[in-house]
Amino acid sequence: MDLLYSLFGWITRVFYDFFGNYGIAIIALTVLIRGLLIPLNIRSQKSMIKMQALSSKQAELQRKYGDDKQKLQEEMMKMQQENGAMGLSGCLLPFLQLFFIWPIYRIVSGPLIYLSQVPNENVASMIELGEKMNIFSGAVSEKIHIGLVSALNNNGEFLNQCISKGYIALDQLLDLHFLGIDLTMVPSFNPAQIIAEPKVYLPLLMFPILVVLTQVFSMQFAKLLKPGYKQEQEAKQRAKNNPAREGQVQENTSTEMTMKMMNWTMPLIMLVTTFTMPAAMGLYWIIGGIMGILTQLLVYVLFTKPYEQKKAEIEAKKEAIFKKKSKEESAEEQPKSGKKNKKKK
Questions:
Q1: C-alpha closest to that of 222 among 40, 45, 27
Q2: pTM reported for the whole predicted model
Q3: Which tens digit of pLDDT belongs to each residue from 126-161?
Q4: H or E segment and range at residue 181
Q5: For residue 263, what are the CA distances in angstroms to 158, 237, 270, 297, 309?
Q6: 181 pairs with which residues across the strands?
Q7: What stretch of H or E contains 182?
Q8: What is the per-residue pLDDT across 300-320, written as a single tens digit (0 to 9) for each?
Q9: Are strands 181-182 and 177-178 parallel, antiparallel or unpaired?
Q10: Is the N or C terminus of the chain more exposed, i.e. has fewer CB atoms within 10 Å?
């Protein structure tokens, strides 16, 4: 994992040197990571569309093997493999998004090691020196050294001693601000702390707020833009209006409630953790949420919308053929009924 952390740190430093801004470097890193995940998004959406197209075959298999769950599962897997509708990419995507959180967190919590390339032993020596000088308000970790960065930026005597002892060079100090906000600071919900330092903590509150908003919007877009959403809602309404399918409605409602709870749990967890991590982590999540929305729109325009239009055209043609046959049958029946009436007379 250390190799992965170093790689992400090196990429972030390249972006920092290019743009000259820590916040923009984090944004560029987020765009790069989410951009690399776009092919997986596309594959996942294609797989979902194929599963929608196979819904009639799925219903047929359920009627045929409804009592044999194992056989039904085998036939469903076989059908999906034959039609290239395996949903592995859909499972892999959330896992990768969670996996990338760890190196990002290590970078934003340990910028001296991963961005400034300060050796670990030098960081340990600076922490020891700071503890002797009683300049830390709390405990400082060698891996999470946000307090150390703050001390180097705000305490001239401490900085001079660290430089004179060779722990850090002046060119290794980075400006970790973005739009005037120190991205090494952790947002606070403590009113007393906010009132005591409003210039510091009030701007930081925008990070947890925007994290939640982008996640909620991203979830809503994912729901509204998924294939067959409109038909799914119409089917649910028909099922609710049909007393014979009351049990199925209750089952679907239970599943839907479980999914809603899972969807709302993630933003809540992110809100809580944003108040325990540097603001740079919140910036990563905000840009990630925006990238997720843009990706969903891209996939919808390129794949989902054409699929929905094609499906609507096919349904319209089927309906037109059905109406035509119905008219022909009624036209054939009218002469027959006329002849019968004449015979009665």
A1: 45
A2: 0.78
A3: 998 988 888 876 667 667 777 888 888 888 899 999
A4: strand 181-182
A5: 47, 22, 12, 19, 29
A6: 178
A7: strand 181-182
A8: 888 778 877 777 777 777 777
A9: antiparallel
A10: C
